[in-house]
Design a protein that fits this description.
Belongs to the SelWTH family. Selenoprotein T subfamily. With about 140 residues, the protein is mainly alpha-helical. It is built from 7 helices and 2 strands, in the order αααααββαα. Helices cover about 65% and strands about 5% of the residues.
């Protein structure tokens, strides 16, 4: 969402700039955890709705939270859904946000630890554009 907002402002201010964005994928282990959770949550919600005790299958006593979930099915399903979504999002979020101009890095959230404000970003781009124009207008010497 931040990327889309920044992209909109930059394309209004600099119509000639071509903007590309892509997601920086998290490490495979986190992707696998998120995939497992997305399936597990649906199975768990299905078990809660049907009322089938999965603990009996393993010959275990159902914990009190399972009984509570059977008495409050809608609330339990919502909690499972939102908690697993929260963990999935945490697994898939890398916090990576990098900006390059003409393949030259101008900002990295990984290095700086925070996102640039819109004002900072515009200032960075202004400076880079002026620098590029200045470099192009300099006479080239042959040796």
């Amino acid at each position: 969402r931040v990327f889309e907002e920044y992209m909109r402002v930059i394309s209004q201010r600099y119509p000639d700039i071509r903007i590309e964005g892509e997601n920086y994928l998290p490490q495979p282990i986190y992707r696998h955890i998120a995939s497992f959770l997305s399936v597990f949550k649906l199975v768990l919600i299905g078990l809660i709705i049907v009322g089938k005790d999965p603990f009996a299958f393993f010959g275990m006593q159902a914990p009190s939270i399972w009984q509570w979930g059977q008495e409050n099915k809608v609330y339990a399903c919502m909690m499972v859904f939102f908690l697993s979504n929260m963990i999935e999002n945490q697994c898939m979020s890398t916090g990576a946000f990098e900006i390059t101009l003409n393949d030259v890095p101008v900002w990295s959230k990984l290095e700086s630890g925070h996102l640039p404000s819109m004002q900072q970003l515009v200032q960075i781009l202004d400076n880079e554009m002026k620098l590029n124009v200045h470099m192009e207008s300099m006479p080239h010497h042959r040796s």
